[in-house]
């Protein structure tokens, strides 16, 4: 009895492109053609052909040193990039707040139902149960409530549902939580936490928003249990939160412009194999492989009533 070997299907173009992009990890920003061929198992000629297409589209850039991620790949946002941008914007304001208040100052971001701390500075911080890189339940912190109050209803419900299932969170009075967040909104985003379940300390938090009004992070001051009168620092806290927001927008605009400057217009004709140019009903240029469904979904030119 003879058996017929079943031919193994060739990996798709998407699979091969993904394999090539996966070789550019944090440790290796630059790769040679030989490196990429060996790591992916692709023949050099195949790897070179795909790389040239990725270069033409901006996913990869090529110079004398080798291949590295291009402008299009670098435009994809990452959590680390967002954190770094926020920390850069906030750094001078955190230290200014500490100098003027002599209390503990936090910079944090919201991750689902939890607050993750990006920075913590102050004269005495040991009595405050937070640490840089650590997380705490958002509803038990002033900075967390300041950020939760900025979420739209659907995002808030999702965060609170995840909070309900979190193993480190005790029973929550949901009605009280919603009343508290409504009060925070009426105060313009200012949240207060007095002697919470985490520690006998007082904190006041404020949100940091982007230019579109979306939550970017949060800022808070904490007395560390010393009973310092935080109320008098509220205007200062809100002012620094606004300044961080403005600085964050400026840094983001700078980063976006630098990426746009690196972004050449892709030459779609290089991939079209001589196909004639195609346009949508409203005159927009389309990639040669745009299908009829794309054409139907593209709105046509407006007409005067």
Shape: elongated
The appropriate CATH architecture of the largest domain is 2-Layer Sandwich
The whole-number mean of residue pLDDT values reads: 75
The level of helicity is 40-55%
The number of distinct structural domains comes to 2
Structural class: alpha+beta
CATH superfamily of the largest domain: GAF domain
Q: What's the total helix number?
A: 10
Low-confidence segments, given as residue ranges, are: 265-275, 285-305
Instruction: Give the assembly state of these chains.
Output: single chain
- Number of strand elements: 11
CATH class descriptor name of the largest domain: Alpha Beta
Span of the ends, CA to CA: 77 Å
Could you give the order of the helices and strands? Answer: HEHHEEHHEEEHHHEEEHEEH
Overview of the structural elements:
28% of the residues are buried. It is elongated and about 70 Å long. A six-stranded antiparallel sheet has the order 6-5-4-9-8-7. It is built from ten helices and eleven strands. Mean pLDDT is 75; it is low at 265-275 and 285-305. Helix content is 41%, strand content 17%. The chain folds into two domains: 11-76, Arc Repressor Mutant, subunit A, CATH 1.10.10; 79-257, GAF domain (Beta-Lactamase, 2-Layer Sandwich), CATH 3.30.450.40. It is of the alpha+beta class and 305 residues long.
């Amino acid at each position: 009895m003879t058996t017929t070997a079943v031919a193994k299907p060739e990996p798709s173009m998407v699979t091969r492109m993904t394999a090539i992009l996966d070789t550019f990890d944090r440790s290796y920003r630059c790769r040679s053609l030989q490196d990429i061929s060996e790591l992916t198992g692709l023949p050099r000629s195949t790897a070179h052909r795909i790389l040239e297409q990725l270069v033409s589209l901006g996913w990869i850039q090529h110079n004398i040193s080798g291949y590295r991620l291009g402008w299009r790949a670098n435009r994809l946002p990452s959590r680390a990039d967002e954190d770094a941008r926020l920390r850069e914007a906030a750094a001078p304001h955190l230290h200014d707040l500490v100098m003027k208040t002599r209390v503990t100052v936090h910079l944090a971001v919201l991750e689902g139902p939890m607050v993750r701390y990006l920075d913590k500075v102050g004269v005495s911080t040991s009595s405050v149960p937070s640490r840089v890189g650590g997380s705490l339940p958002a509803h038990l912190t002033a900075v967390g409530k300041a950020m939760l109050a900025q979420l739209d209803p659907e995002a808030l419900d999702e965060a609170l549902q995840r909070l309900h299932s979190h193993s480190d969170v005790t029973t929550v009075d949901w009605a009280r939580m919603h009343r508290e967040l409504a009060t925070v909104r009426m105060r313009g985003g200012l949240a207060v936490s007095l002697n919470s379940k985490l520690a006998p300390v007082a904190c006041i938090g404020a949100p940091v928003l982007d230019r579109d009004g979306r939550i970017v992070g949060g800022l808070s001051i904490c007395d560390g249990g010393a009973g310092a009168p935080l109320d008098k620092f509220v205007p200062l806290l809100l002012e620094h939160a606004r300044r961080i927001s403005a600085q964050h927008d400026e840094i983001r605009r700078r980063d976006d412009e630098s990426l746009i400057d690196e972004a050449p217009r892709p030459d779609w004709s290089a991939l079209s194999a001589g196909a004639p140019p195609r346009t949508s009903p409203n005159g927009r240029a389309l990639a040669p492989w745009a299908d009829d469904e794309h054409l139907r979904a593209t709105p046509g030119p407006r007409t005067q009533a």
